[in-house]
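User: Could you go from structure to sequence for me? I need the amino acid at each position, not a summary. Structure tokens:
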């Protein structure tokens, strides 16, 4: 493996970490409705657990209400039960074959808890980025030790790896700030 391959590999892995972090942020509830909030809910579909999105259509009615339309009428009660029993604190209401999921307004205390959760997720993402930086630097050191790269290459690559790391950490900080604004907006 060359220094260039290590950096390319590092950038790809860091981008994956950012994507995973963004995915985790969509699961954190803000005051507004978001269909991605229901992605983690599993529904008992004839004996096997299936993601909600595979047994029903999930859409927004307005900024505070999600609509869930099961593809089979027989599944409506099970879908409603799965939403109610999830740890999201939602109270769905059935209207024929349409299930309305109103988003309860969040208290100031709950909003602060959510921002703490966002900061914790951000810190975990930064730790993952820093671990990738360490792995890349160790890979370059191994190349130098095996005489496949010079010490000048090592110094140069460490500086470039640090720039890549700084860019990704700055992106995480930016995403955390945006999500906090989103949560604290009443």
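Assistant: Here is the amino acid at each position, in order:
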């Amino acid at each position: 493996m060359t220094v260039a391959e290590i950096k390319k590999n590092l950038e790809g892995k860091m981008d994956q970490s950012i994507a995973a972090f963004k995915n985790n942020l969509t699961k954190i509830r803000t005051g507004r409705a978001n269909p991605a909030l229901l992605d983690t809910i599993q529904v008992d579909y004839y004996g096997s657990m299936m993601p909600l999105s595979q047994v029903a259509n999930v859409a927004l009615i307005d900024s505070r209400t999600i609509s869930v339309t099961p593809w089979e009428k027989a599944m409506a009660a099970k879908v409603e039960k799965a939403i109610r029993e999830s740890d999201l604190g939602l109270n769905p209401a059935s209207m024929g074959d349409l299930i309305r999921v109103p988003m309860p307004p969040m208290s100031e205390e709950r909003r602060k808890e959510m921002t703490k959760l966002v900061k914790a997720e951000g810190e975990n993402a930064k730790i993952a980025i820093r671990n990738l930086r360490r792995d890349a630097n160790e890979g370059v050191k191994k190349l130098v030790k095996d005489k496949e790269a010079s010490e000048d290459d090592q110094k140069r690559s460490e500086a470039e790896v640090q720039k890549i790391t700084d860019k990704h950490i700055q992106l995480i900080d930016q995403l955390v700030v945006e999500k906090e604004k989103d949560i604290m907006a009443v």
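One structural detail worth keeping in mind: The chain is about 55% helix and 15% strand.
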